[in-house]
Amino acid sequence: MERITRFGVSLNSELLRRFDALIKEEGYSSRSEAIRDLLREKIVESECGNPDEEVVGTLTMLYNHDVPGLVNNLLDIQHHCKAKVSATTHIHLDEHHCVEVLLARGKAKDVRELADAVRALKGIDYGKLVLTKAV
Ligand code: NI
Questions:
Q1: Do 122 and 95 belong together in one domain?
Q2: Interval 96-120: pLDDT, tens
Q3: How far apart are CA 62 and CA 128, in angstroms?
Q4: Across the chain, what does the average pLDDT equal?
Q5: Residue 1 placed within a domain
Q6: Does residue 109 fall inside a structural domain?
Q7: Is 66 found in the same domain as 23?
Q8: How far is the centre of ligand 1, averaged over its atoms, from the C-alpha of 120 (Å)?
Q9: Number of domains in the chain
Q10: pLDDT, average across residues 54-77
Q11: How far is the CA of 106 from the centre of ligand 1 (A)?
Q12: Range of 102's domain?
C-alpha cells in the first residue's frame, strides 16, 4: 500500500491566488491533485533529461510529401535508428501535407537522435518531440 505524506508549503498569497484560479480553470478538484501532477511533470522532465533513461517518445510531424525523397528518407531513418519505432499514425491533411505521429521507445539519447534526424530532413515543416516515462 502506498504511503501518503502530508507537507506544508509557504508561499505568497498572490501566487496562491493565481495558482487556485489556474487549477480551477483546468478542472482540478483539489490543490493536492494539481500539485501531484506538477511534481510528476517535473520529475519526468528531469529524468527524461538523462541520456540513458528508458523513455517513450512521441514525435508529431507535419510535412509535405511532394518533396523528392522525403518519404523514403523518413522510412529509412526509422528502419535504421537505435530507438525502436513502435507505431506511426498518418493523416493526409490536404493534397500535399501529411501529419504523422511516431511512437518510439529506447534510451532518451536514441529517441532524441531519431527526432533530430527526422526534423533535419528537407520537407519536414514541423516536428515536436515529447518524452515520457512512468513515475
Ligand atoms: Ni499523407
A1: yes
A2: 999 999 999 999 999 999 999 999 9
A3: 9
A4: 96
A5: no
A6: yes
A7: no
A8: 19
A9: 2
A10: 97
A11: 26
A12: 54-132
Rounded to the nearest angstrom, the distance between the alpha carbon of 108 and the centre of ligand 1 is 28
Which residue from 126, 132, 129 is spatially nearest to 48, judged by alpha carbons?
132
Could you count the other beta carbons within 10 Å of the beta carbon of residue 125?
11
Which three-class secondary structure string do you get for 68-126? Answer: CCHHHHHHHHHHHCCCEEEEEEEEECCCCEEEEEEEEEEEHHHHHHHHHHHHCCCCEEE
Distance separating alpha carbons of residues 96 and 105, to the nearest angstrom: 29
Together in a domain, 66 and 122:
yes
Cα of 37 from ligand 1 centre, angstroms: 35
Residues, Cβ < 5 Å to ion ligand 1: 92, 98
Q: Could you identify the residue written with the cell 520537407?
A: 123
Whole-number Å distance, alpha carbon 90 to ligand 1 midpoint, is 6
